[in-house]
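Molecular record:
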Amino acid sequence: MSQTDEKDSQRQAPDPAPARAFAPARPLPVAPASAIRGRVRLRTLTNLRWMATCGQTVALFLVYFGFNYALPIWACLACVLVSAALNIALVTHYPPSHRLTNREATIYLAIDVLQLAALLYLTGGIANPFALMFIAPVVIAASTLNLGNTMILGAIALASASLIAVAHEPLPWNGPFYLPPLYQAGMWASLVLGIGFTSVYAWRIASEGARMSAGLAATQLALAREQRLSTIGALATAAAHELGTPLGTIAVVAHELERTLPAGSPEAQDARLLRSQAERCRMILMKLARPEATMLGGTARLPICALLDDIADTYRDEELEIVITAIPADRDSPQPQVWRAPELLHGLGNIIENAADFARTRVRIEASWDATRLKVSVEDDGPGFAPDIFERIGEPYITSRPGDHAVGDTEIGPPTAKIGKHEGMGLGFFIAKTLLEQTGGNVKALNPPGGGARVSVSWQRGQIDSENPPPRGEED
């Protein structure tokens, strides 16, 4: 091999560029909360309907045969048989694991409401104590369906209750029995209020639970990916250790060949090139075995300002200035040495990224500490947090980035905190807040008097700057 060939070979295999930190992967799209709650198993409704038919049958037989009250027993039993026949048809037509769409579930629950209204029409209307059962189908819909279908079912229940309040058969009783009209009006009002209040309450609780579950699942996914990157680093270290021995052998053999071959001969040049390439492989393996030493000075801990500078470097550009300031309580106090935990990197990185997205020209990051507390504040000169949803900052699926609607949150109200440059799912701040709280941090957001937005995270000393890494939050 000639000297020219050697140079060409070296040009074709340039020295590797310095390793770059893996950018955190974006969370996978999470199913909207409305979609998660909008599908209910058929078996659930059929089991509830069997319970209702059994209870209605027992009540009819007890009143008619046990108390000897006069009532149209055959017409009432026909209503019960219609409900049982519907159950049998559904069980034979669909598998037990079949999941209903919002529309199907609304239709089946509406049939239950109408069947109950027919029974109550035959047995005294709202004067019948069992009129309270109008609440059950609406509460089931509120806890499983979306807001639109819940409102439709609530309207059907209210219309049915209003109809049987003015038109119904006499209440089964021994002798004439009539409730005063004012009392019946009060019962109708209490039934309407009960349906409205319980359905709204059940829907809000179910909606909040579904959104929190989806948000926590996205948080766990983000943290799992950070941990997977750590696992890849461990595998690279193991591979570097295993390859070190054969590369050392190659380097020794190449050196011995170079010594035995005539100086200046093509074979000697090949041996020298082989030894240089083996040394190059050894240097690459050293970088794989100790990525922190290559990139961050050989330690998993960094001064707080150095850590913030490392995180913020990704978001600097010609149009945006990111300034990092240290504010110790005591001028002689050294900077806290902070662990590079995945939760800390991902959480602070997400907050800084949001500030960079919304800032006009400047992002200011302050690190302050004293003997008891360590605090990091990220402030931008953007539009700030919207006042109407300020209390909901940090909840999952709360966003108003352009082209965005909060996932699964379209019925709750204005979904966002700020207006930014990039689209999102409304999970970034929620994930950052959750991860930072797992390290013991307390996250607060506010609009400073001078404009913009500020997010502050504070820890007790020793939570992220102790001699031991911060403990990971336990999974629920």
Strands lie at 40-41, 99-100, 301-303, 321-328, 337-339, 362-369, 373-380, 442-446, 453-460. The chain has two domains: 1-14+29-296, 301-460. The radius of gyration is 35 Å.
